[in-house]
Write a structure and sequence with these properties.
Chain C: This is ABC transporter substrate-binding protein. Chain C: Keywords: Signal. Chain C: InterPro entries: Ferric-bd (IPR026045). The complex is a heterotrimer of chains A (729), B (360) and C (347). Chain A has three domains: 144 residues, no CATH class; 251 residues, MetI-like fold (Orthogonal Bundle); 213 residues, MetI-like fold (Orthogonal Bundle), CATH 1.10.3720. Chain A has a two-stranded antiparallel sheet with strand order 1-2. Chain A has a two-stranded antiparallel ribbon with strand order 3-4. Chain A has 729 residues and is mostly helical. Chain A has 33 helices and six strands. Chain B is α+β, with helices and mostly antiparallel strands and 360 residues long. Chain B has two domains: 220 residues, P-loop containing nucleotide triphosphate hydrolases (Rossmann fold), CATH 3.40.50; 117 residues, OB fold (Dihydrolipoamide Acetyltransferase, E2P). Chain B has eight helices and 20 strands. A six-stranded mixed β-sheet of chain B has the order 6-7-8-3-9-10, with helices on both faces. Chain B has a five-stranded antiparallel β-sheet with strand order 13-12-11-14-20. A five-stranded antiparallel β-sheet of chain B has the order 15-19-16-17-18, with no helix packed on it. Chain B is globular and about 75 Å long. In chain B, 45% of the residues are buried. Chain C is of the alpha/beta class and 347 residues long. Chain C has two domains: 160 residues, Periplasmic binding protein-like II (D-Maltodextrin-Binding Protein, domain 2), CATH 3.40.190.10; 137 residues, D-Maltodextrin-Binding Protein, domain 2 (3-Layer(aba) Sandwich), CATH 3.40.190.10. In chain C, strand 1, helix 2 and strand 2 form a beta-alpha-beta unit. The chains are: A mainly alpha (729), B alpha+beta (360), C alpha/beta (347). Chains in contact: A-B, A-C, B-C. Chains A and C meet through helix 1, helix 6, helix 7, helix 18 and helix 25 of A and helix 1, strand 2, helix 3, helix 7 and strand 7 of C.
């Protein structure tokens, strides 16, 4: 146990005395630039270059050495680690934020201590290493005092996750939200905040009594409620069809659930325009056959509602299918033996037990709709919603980040309010019926009315979805979709051309650059997202610590904040010392990781709660540490959750647009940003060809991930599901 | 390769475990000799499982000291204690074969794969499962899974082997066999074992000593005979073996006999079985169900007249529910040939053996 | 046991350090000139290649709409990562100049430049200069107008004709610089109250206030609407792409945008940035537009004007007051008035 404290103490010294403290990639100082390599270490720079504020770090570093030098089990050992580590961490952070490129960052400090002759750059390798070392010393100290059952790994993991979330979620969000009260002169004014939050164009209700538009909040809430209701209804219908009827083509249903997730933004909207726009295929056909005059009904609420329902129904289906499957058939059988008819059974037993699932599906639809940006952008017409308003408050002609921040606060409030309502409605009732006991019942058939309704809702919708995607794929091969439908490979050649030059293969297509960057970013961020998410899930499910529910709440925060706000906040927070990341690929990856982390956490929490805790405990009593337990016992059992997080984060990294559009740098252009450019230009052919290629690519990657991670032991594990549920009741 | 023994003693000194305001284990002290099988017995929520988990290191004591083999392990996490545990749910890793499960602790402890496999095979042999190594846990019956869990805990040659209600998922017949097997194995290898159960019969059957817990504290520690013959309070008297608790008065002790008045009658009880510090006055008479003898004649001798409320035929014996001036009584009689029919009034007499005195 | 744990902790730590190293790794942008590009992507690529060939300085080009570019420059203000902002309407360039995000620069080509390009230079106090111009105008769907036997619009007043009921698209000036230029143009032609009177009437004919300035052009080309108000080169672009559209400019006079270039204040590659600035104003650099099928009018008189470009001789330009309508207050005032009087009136 002492080895690892000693290791971190040594690493802390290495970071302080041997490695360059400041980042060489970031902005360089004009006054006394730190030297390269060893000469740029905090120790030497602090002594030789007059950056005296780095030298107090020596005290906590010495305290660390003192702790390690003490005899084993000395009662001072953990205290020294804890106090030293915490003080070191605190000092590093405070001096980093207080002293910027040109000296004091806050005028108040300059007035207090007198001006500084020089400033300092952004944290580099040395600073990062030393801070990490301080962090693990602190958590090691906590563990030594008996917190976390004395487990250093758990304490360290909690510390690491907390620090990363503070750095990559709280810090940027704090930056952007604090600008909601920006008085215009750089200060904070509660009055400005209040004015922005209560602006009449946000809240007015004119549409109720005159022919004027309502405030954007009401628009958003109405749209989100409708989307939530529709997706829940459709998801329920699909789930009932899939689980409770003899429907055969379940593979098709599965595909249906995957398709919208791997669809780049805008694609569904485009397809909908080309079908239902005023000159769309369907519209023209209706005009020819039935004389219905073409109109623009698709622009505005109907169009956005349609596309959002298309996009989010599969998610509702995934939630509902779990719930429908989880209802123990024996409960329904019990109802039937009590003389309840099929319909009465459904109404009194099946339906009430599905209620939490319905609430969850609705909540997800509601929040996804609030945060959706691509569909309202293309199809919104004159129907304004919060997410697009925020975007245009930042990039539009008004250029008012304060207003964007205020709208962001309102959007966040709506999401949290929805969470709160759901919690209140469901209370602490648990309807889970998946217990350790095998359930030998056979689910009863659905009452005829419900079955007909389910089929009548689900099947036409499924057909509609497939037609839409068929058209998208087809559109990539047409000369000019809608006008000239002759077949061509032109768009694909344009995007993905390969030629042989003198020096070998030339990637001549226009899409290659952005495609390679996209794959690189997605490939790096997916495993990181899965790792951070599952680690957090492990802490939430398997460990108990103070403030756990607050911690859980905060991890969900970045999910509720619209991407545009996150993107701007990342630039604001990470463009200057102490953390300078703009223009690097790291900022893209970090943004994607922390934005997608909540989903990974949810997948991990769900899967981990199903694994009996005694499995980990038995591993611990058999002498394996927490890390080994995770590696040898939990991870292998979590394969489905790992697959889910990997797939989701990979796909999201490819399809996300709103957050990263501010972060892409010339070096690191992403596929979606490129596609949006093509759509703006009206070059639908290339956009659709590129999108189709991405859909195919993501499909292939999903298959590959499942092959590599998911199914290695499948031959011998087919009966294992039961063993997993061997939980005593 | 054989399985050796590292049996060590366990000692709790004033150990308390709190969860926020709630106290799960309150100021508990005991010591367990090396090589003994000690049972923690008590009703649900009495703190027995928490105590066991504190020995394992899965829970940390809020205060007090825990020693294993004389070393202070209070702050040591589970990983670093040489203690293994057999779980109620077996907790076999479903993604590993039986052999991999048994070798797990050895492998993570750094033993070479081949040595670990060899030792695992020895362990499986010990529990009578050689040849099952390549199966998956899900392919075994409940009893076999239980044996695998025992083998897995044994091969690490722990200082203490813990059992957390290991038999509760088995049917009655298998439970008896497993219980004997575990006891045999423990005695053959000379293991220190701590065994948690809420089944008093199981506890009486396997234990060298029993620690009875109730409401977060230790009610009594002793050998099975001690607890059965000389319970220290009404809880232990009732919990171990069951007892009819009758209001009585201790009226005198001397000459190896304590006199107890019940109703109008005075019963002599061996003074050695009555706690020495018990003062004269109101006490409870604890009468084992099998110490109540029913006689057909009414009103003679110093018996108590009782009415049979209910008579249940159980094959090997009869169970009677009785109504009397002393309250409702519960009796067991091995006479199944001529049972007393319900509704009749008979005389109940208390046998010399099976009558105890406990404080009120 | 602890040995194993240490091993793992070690690897864990190594992973962390690797991540930090990745984060801090010198981006190759360090050696490259970073340019935000405000025109179509084809042109961005073309000028980057041409400049690289000429100067040997590699260019990293990122296409950003004017609003995105300005938002990014603002966010980066404390520590700029961008060297040059090239292309996009002159208006946000003026805003950037007003906010001190860009720095003054004089060019050797000044004598060859069109007067409007120099006017941009003057109004921005030397911090920005015009590289191309595009006129505000109408785009209409030739096929559909013919089918309905409607005359193409030639004047602002034509847009109020009843045939165009629900057939006009223009961007939302709160979102798009194009539409703000239109708003400011109308105010300068009709006076402020007259302009809002006009816009109120126009509101009945508008079916949608789009979010992007060039969106009406692609809507018209697909027949989603009959007429759009756009910068004419966006319409010409659709025409060249084979759609049945044509453009016209209003008879009452029209405004224009001056596509501009600015050097970012605090750039770390000032010399390279200056070289790019000069190249962007040279005939050679300006010729890249036509090569990339972009049909704005170049600002250097010696640069060849593409034949498809609107002939500025035939267009009646107003004397657009960039100084007045480029300031933040005026902009904010006009936009809020538009928001409360036009936008909230039932659309």
């Amino acid at each position: 146990m002492r080895h690892s404290s000693a290791l971190w103490v040594v690493l802390g010294w290495v970071g302080f005395a041997l490695l360059p403290w400041f980042s060489s990639a970031a902005t360089q100082l004009s006054v006394n630039p730190p030297g390269a390599g060893l000469a740029g270490s905090a120790l030497i720079d602090g002594l030789a270059n007059g950056r005296w504020w780095l030298l107090p770090l020596l005290a906590p570093l010495v305290a660390g050495v003192g702790a390690v030098a003490l005899p084993r089990h000395h009662s001072l050992h953990p205290w020294l680690l804890l106090v030293g580590g915490a003080a070191g961490l605190l000092w590093t952070v405070v001096q980093g934020f207080a002293i910027g490129l040109n000296g004091w960052n806050w005028p108040g400090l300059a007035a207090l201590f007198g001006p500084l002759p020089q400033g300092q750059g952004a944290f580099g390798l040395g600073a990062a290493l030393t801070m990490t070392a301080f962090l693990f010393q602190t958590t090691g100290g906590f563990a030594g005092l008996g917190c976390m059952k004395g487990d250093r790994f758990t304490a360290g993991a909690i510390g690491l996750v907390l620090l990363s979330i503070a750095l990559f979620v709280f810090l940027p969000v704090g930056f952007v939200l604090s600008s909601a009260g920006d008085s215009g002169a750089g200060g904070f004014s509660p009055l400005a905040l209040w004015t922005r939050l209560t602006a009449p164009d946000i809240w007015r209700l004119n549409c109720l009594y005159e022919n004027r538009s309502c405030g954007v909040v009401w628009n958003s809430v109405f749209l989100a409620t409708m989307t939530g209701l529709l997706t829940t209804l459709l998801g329920l219908a699909f789930a009932l069809v899939a689980v409770r009827t003899g429907f055969r083509a379940k593979g098709l249903l599965r595909m249906l659930t995957v398709l919208p997730i791997i669809t780049p933004p805008f694609v569904i909207s485009l397809a909908v325009i080309l079908l239902f726009g005023r000159t769309g295929t369907v519209t023209l056909a209706l005009a020819d056959w039935f004389g219905i005059p073409p109109s623009r009904w698709i622009y505005g609420l109907p169009g956005v509602l349609l596309t959002q329902t298309l996009a989010f129904t599969p998610i509702a289906f995934l939630v509902m299918i779990g719930v429908v499957q989880g209802i123990g058939p024996s409960l329904e059988e019990a109802a039937q033996t009590l003389r309840a008819s099929l319909w009465v059974t459904f109404r009194t037993v099946t339906w009430p037990m599905m209620r939490p699932g319905v609430a969850n599906a609705f909540l997800i639809g509601f929040i996804e709709s609030l945060a959706d940006f691509g569909n309202p952008l293309i199809l919104g017409g004159n129907y304004d919603v919060l997410s697009t308003k925020i975007y245009f408050a930042v990039v539009g002609a008004q250029n008012d980040p304060g207003r964007a921040a205020a709208l962001g606060i309102i959007l966040l409030g709506l999401c949290l309010g929805a969470f709160w309502l759901q919690r209140r409605w469901l209370g602490t009732k648990s309807y889970a019926t998946v217990s350790g006991k095998g359930d030998n019942g056979v689910p009863p058939a659905l009452p005829t009315g419900v079955r007909v309704a389910a089929f009548a809702t689900a099947l036409p919708w499924a057909v509609f979805t497939f037609i839409l995607y068929g058209m998208v794929l087809f559109g990539g091969f047409t000369e000019n979709w809608g006008r000239n439908n002759s077949l061509t490979l032109r768009h694909y050649r344009n995007a993905f051309d390969l030629t042989w030059g003198e020096h070998g293969l030339i990637w001549a297509g226009r899409a290659w650059d952005s495609l390679f960057t996209t794959i690189q970013v997605a490939g790096l961020s997916a495993p990181l997202t899965a790792a951070v998410g599952l680690m957090t899930a492990y802490l939430l499910v398997r460990q108990r610590f103070a403030g756990q529910s607050a911690f859980e709440f905060f991890t969900m925060l970045s999910f509720a904040i619209p991407g545009t706000v996150i993107g701007v906040s990342y630039i604001l927070a990470f463009n200057q010392p102490p953390v300078e990341l703009t223009g690097t690929m790291a900022i893209l990856i970090l943004c994607i990781v922390f934005r997608n982390m909540p989903v990974s956490i949810r997948a991990g929490v769900a899967a981990m709660s199903q694994i009996d805790r005694s499995l980990d405990e038995s591993s611990l009593t058999l002498g394996a540490g927490n890390l080994q337990t995770i590696r040898r016992v939990i991870l292998p059992l979590l394969r489905p959750a790992i697959v889910a997080s990997l797939v989701y984060s990979f796909v999201r990294a490819i399809t996300s647009i709103s957050a990263v559009i501010f972060l892409v740098s010339p070096e690191h252009e992403l596929a979606t940003a490129y596609i949006v450019g093509r759509v703006e230009q009206g070059d639908f052919g290339l956009a659709i060809a590129y999108s189709s290629a991405l859909i195919v690519l993501m499909g292939a990657v999903i298959a590959l991930i499942q092959l590599v991670v998911g199914e290695r032991r499948i031959g011998r594990r087919t009966t294992d599901r039961l063993a997993l549920q061997e939980k005593p009741v | 390769m054989s399985i050796a023994t590292n049996a060590s003693g366990v000692e709790f000194r004033n150990v308390t475990r709190r969860y926020g305001q709630a106290v799960a284990v309150n100021d508990v002290s005991f010591s367990i000799r090396a090589g003994d099988l000690v049972t923690l017995l008590g009703p649900s929520g009495c703190g027995k499982t928490t105590t066991l988990r504190m020995i394992a290191g899965l829970e940390m004591a809020s205060s007090g000291t825990i020693l294993i083999g004389g070393k202070d392990v209070t702050r040591l996490p589970a990983t670093d204690r040489n203690v293994t545990m057999v779980f109620q749910s077996y907790a076999l890793f479903p993604h590993m074969t039986v052999a991999e499960n048994v070798a797990y602790g050895l492998v993570v402890g750094g033993m070479r794969k081949t040595d670990a496999a060899e030792k695992a095979a020895a362990g499986l042999d010990l529990v009578g499962l050689s040849g099952y190594g390549q199966r998956l846990p899900s392919e075994l019956s409940g009893g076999q899974q239980q044996r695998v869990a025992v083998a897995r805990a044994l091969v690490l040659e722990p200082e203490v082997l813990l059992f957390d209600e290991p038999l509760s998922n088995l049917d009655a017949k298998l439970r008896r066999k497993m219980r004997d097997d575990i006891r045999d194995l423990q005695q053959t290898l000379g293991l220190t074992s701590v065994y948690v159960t809420h089944d008093q019969e199981e506890a009486l059957a396997v234990s060298d000593r029993i620690i009875v817990m109730n409401r977060s504290v230790i009610a009594q520690i002793g050998s099975p005979t001690d607890l059965y013959r000389r319970p220290r309070d009404r809880f232990v008297a009732d919990f171990i073996g069951g007892a009819n608790l009758i209001e009585a008065e201790l009226i005198g002790r001397g000459d190896g006999v304590a006199a107890v008045r019940v109703g109008h009658a005075v019963l002599p009880v061996p003074d050695a079985d009555v706690a020495a510090d018990l003062p004269l006055g109101g006490v409870l008479l604890a009468v084992r169900p099998n110490a109540i003898r029913l006689r057909a004649e009414v009103g003679t001798g110093n018996g108590v007249p009782v009415t049979v409320r209910k008579a249940t035929y159980l094959g090997s014996h009869m169970e009677y529910g009785l109504t009397s001036a002393l309250g409702d009584l519960f009796a067991i009689d091995t006479n199944v040939v001529n049972p007393v029919p319900a509704g009749t009034t008979v005389t109940a007499r208390f046998a010399d053996d099976g009558v105890m005195v406990v404080p009120r | 046991m602890s040995g194993v744990v240490t091993g793992w902790t070690g690897r864990f730590g190594a992973g962390l350090v690797a991540l930090v190293a990745l984060a801090a790794s010198p981006a190759s942008a360090q050696e490259r000139l970073t340019v935000l590009c405000g025109v179509q992507e084809e042109w961005c690529k073309a000028i980057a290649v041409a400049f690289e060939k000429k100067s040997g300085i590699p260019v990293a080009m990122s296409r950003k709409s004017a609003g995105e570019a300005l938002a990014q420059l603002r966010a980066e203000a404390a520590n700029p990562k961008t060297d040059v902002w090239w292309g996009g309407p002159g208006d946000p360039h003026l805003q950037a100049a007003e906010e001190g995000l860009t720095q003054p620069q004089d060019s050797q080509y000044a004598k060859d430049l069109q007067p409007w390009a120099l006017s941009q230079h003057r109004q921005s106090k030397g911090r920005s200069v015009g590289i191309y111009a595009g006129a505000l105008g109408f785009v209409y769907n030739v096929e559909m107008l013919a089918k309905r036997k409607i005359e193409p619009p030639k004047c602002w007043a034509d847009l109020l004709r009843p045939e165009f009921k629900d057939e006009v698209q223009i961007a939302n000036p709160n979102a798009s610089g194009t539409a703000y230029t239109a708003l400011a143009t109308l105010v300068q032609i009709f006076g402020e109250d007259g302009a809002f009177e006009y816009l109120k009437k126009l509101n009945d004919n508008v079916n949608q206030y789009t979010k992007s300035g060039s969106a009406p052009a692609s809507a018209v080309s697909r027949g989603e609407t009959l007429v759009g108000v756009i910068f004419t080169h966006d319409g010409i672009n659709q025409k060249v792409n084979g759609f049945p559209v044509d453009v016209s400019t209003p008879c009452e006079g029209t405004g224009y945008e001056i596509g501009s270039v600015s050097i970012i204040k605090g750039t770390r590659k000032l010399d390279a940035a200056k070289a790019f600035y000069e190249f962007a104003l040279s005939p050679e650099g300006q010729a890249t537009g036509a090569q990339a099928k972009q049909f704005q009018v170049p600002s250097n008189k010696k640069a060849p004007t593409p034949p498809e470009a609107p002939n500025f001789e035939d267009i009646r330009f107003i004397d657009y007051n960039f100084q007045k309508y480029g300031t933040a207050e005026e902009r904010k005032r006009l936009l809020s008035r538009w928001d409360s009087e036009i936008k909230s009136a039932g659309k």
